[in-house]
Amino acid sequence: MKVTNNNEISKWRWYALAVTVLGIIVYSLPWLSSRSKILLTIPLYAMFVYVYYKYICLKKAAQPAVSAKEDSPDLQKITPEQNANKNAVRKGKTTSKKGR
């Protein structure tokens, strides 16, 4: 599922890039009249909104899966002090805290 979702996000990222480049091309061509640029703006803007909306929705849908994965107890963050105590117990040593 995750690989398919990443492929889908990547596909829509390329679509978003293509729509952006198409918009730049349409506005930079000097031989297009102002009227035709305005007429081409309407479908171009519709494509832009749809593609970016789809891209953002896919990115947000993929994000809860990542955050749920981070909340699992297996991936809890360990402090350096806990890590030192854990390593000392493995070696059969005890850690002494200086100044306490």
Count of extended strands = 0
Q: What is the rounded distance between the termini?
A: 51 Å
Count of separate structural domains: 1
Number of helices: 3
Describe this structure in words.
It is a single chain. The mean pLDDT is 78. This protein has one domain. The longest helix has 37 residues. 76% of the residues lie in helices and 0% in strands. It is rod-shaped. The protein has three helices and no strands. With 100 residues, the chain is an all-alpha fold.
Keywords:
100 residues, 3 helices, rod-shaped
Strand and helix map with partners:
Layout: H1 2-28, H2 34-70, H3 80-91
Question: What is the structure about, briefly put?
Answer:
By secondary structure, the chain is mainly α.
